[in-house]
Every structure is written in C-alpha cells, then in structure tokens.
C-alpha cells in the first residue's frame, strides 16, 4: 500500500482557487484509480472525484458543479486537485485516496493520506 501525503491547502477568500497535491511513496499507475475526498463538519466524509490509472477518465461529485479538476502525473507519482470558485461550504480537510469512489461509496479511511486543510473565508 502506498503512503500518500497531501499539500497545498490554506486560507483562501470566496471565489478563490487552490491546487492540492498528493505525493505517493510508490508507483501510482500500479495503484490504479485514485480519488479525492473531504471531510466537512456539515457533510462528514464526502467523495469528490476519481481518476482512472491512465488519467483519461474522470468522475466528479455532481455537487461540485464543475469547479474542481482532478489530474495525475504517473511519472512523478503525483495526484492533483484544482479547486476553483471556492465557497465557504468547501471548507474542510481534503484527502487523496487509493482506489475509486462514487457518490455512494467513499474509499475506506485506511486508504487516505494525512490530509490538507482548506479554509474558505473572507
């Protein structure tokens, strides 16, 4: 199991953008699909997006309304999440995770990284 370490979180004003990064300790192509999830006080654990092993197929939570973009660089064992149009409701801890997810299924907690905090406030 690869170890995952997220970075790039911070404090941003409403409407702002952030790019989150996730560094993996091993070959993420062999891991296969990877996801981003978040934890917020209002919704608890929430799946956000999944990208397949070669990066050509992505799925997103409908609630994001196209504001976030998941990507990966297998040559660097990195996963990314570009956040745009941030809203206060996006405040929470963001985690990358090994494996796929969906609106109905959040990847198991044991497959998440350490997380990075995103705070959206004026």
Name the features:
about 120 residues, mainly beta, six-stranded mixed sheet, four-stranded antiparallel sheet
Notes on the structure:
Helices cover 3% and strands 46% of the residues. It has one helix and ten strands, in the order βββαβββββββ. It has a six-stranded mixed beta sheet with strand order 2-10-9-4-5-6, with no helix packed on it. A four-stranded antiparallel beta sheet has the order 1-3-8-7, with no helix packed on it. It is globular and about 40 Å long. The mean pLDDT is 95.
List the helices and strands and how they pair.
Layout: E1 4-7, E2 10-12, E3 18-24, H1 28-31, E4 34-40, E5 44-51, E6 58-60, E7 68-73, E8 78-83, E9 92-98, E10 116-120
Parallel strand pairs: 2-10
Antiparallel strand pairs: 1-3, 3-8, 4-5, 4-9, 5-6, 7-8, 9-10
What fraction of the residues are assigned to beta strands by DSSP? over 45%
Instruction: Trace the largest sheet across and list its strands.
Output: 2-10-9-4-5-6
Low-pLDDT ranges: none
Helices, by number, come to 1
Biggest sheet descriptor? 6 strands, mixed
- Rg from Cα: 13 Å
**How helical, in percent, are the residues?**
under 10%
Distance linking N and C termini: 39 Å
Morphology = globular
The ordered string of helix (H) and strand (E) elements is EEEHEEEEEEE
